[in-house]
Design brief:
five-stranded parallel sheet; 11 helices; alpha/beta; globular
Length: 336
Amino acid sequence: MSTIIEKPIVDLLLAAGHVLLLTDERLDGDTLGSTLGWYAVLVEMGKTVTIYSPKEIPEQFAFLPNVRVIRTDDLVFADTTVDLMIICDCSDGLYIKDKLPLLPRRIPLVTFDHHSTNPRYGTHNIIEPGAASTADVVWRFMKRNELPMNKQAAQCLLTGVCTDTSLFTTSNTTTAAFEAAVELTKLGAKLNTVIENTMMNKSVSVLRIWGRLFSRLHFNTEFDALCTALTLDDLQEFGNPEIDTSSISNFLNASIDEADAILILRESDDRSVKGSMRSRGRDVAAVAARYGGGGHKLAAGFRIAEARLQESNGVWKIVKAVTRSNEVNVNFLKTS
């Protein structure tokens, strides 16, 4: 990465008094690990730091250092002392657009990401599409610019690297990701802590949901992918446990040779359907883009509002509900 690109960002970091850190809407280990890694480093630099998440943090990430300081109230955007914002692993920045009018004045926004579909919506952007995770993008930036590192930051960043590569088993795993893990471990990060909390610590309810998803595997011609589906009724049946569909899609992608793409469809309580796609060679970001989503070549996702899932003869499809005069007309979603 060119120092010409990075110098203005470093200057902003050094001059900032109060930094507002932002997570993505999809609360996985990479966005949380990258964001909390920045928190530990910026506090070490003597900055006032606030973290905002648009959603409550899943309990599986309760082990991360400083996770309890994350706020979910919009009052953080009204703070007149904030003079810099940083967002990590947010490929589209869509929810940020709704928050910007809440700011008392225009504030620089720096984005760190590894998704090729990121439109570079920040004032300054550090985007590395070839990176395995945003966490190792952040780590390399910190290392190049000699920012103060500590054990807490290392633990958070290692979590991001490990979870976004499913412990270095996904096809997007790079040499740089391994190098980052080694360096962060030398700084005091514990690999076993990440594994125990994000990969091994599964409840019976979560494992039963995995079983339900495995039983529904079928080939979906609309997406040209091996597909499965999770409904709100399924979640209610098993007690509404926290479930990370990206970890399941990563597992299937690494385990099944019969398809070049994996798709998990999931109903959300905001009346939308979300899709998580994985591949070992095919460009699934191009597929996700047709549905308003994005990501990078081998891992992408999308969200379709006002939709639900419907099963017919073992095949699950997305149906979109359009309300007119209190009547709901269901139309099958088309790729065109």
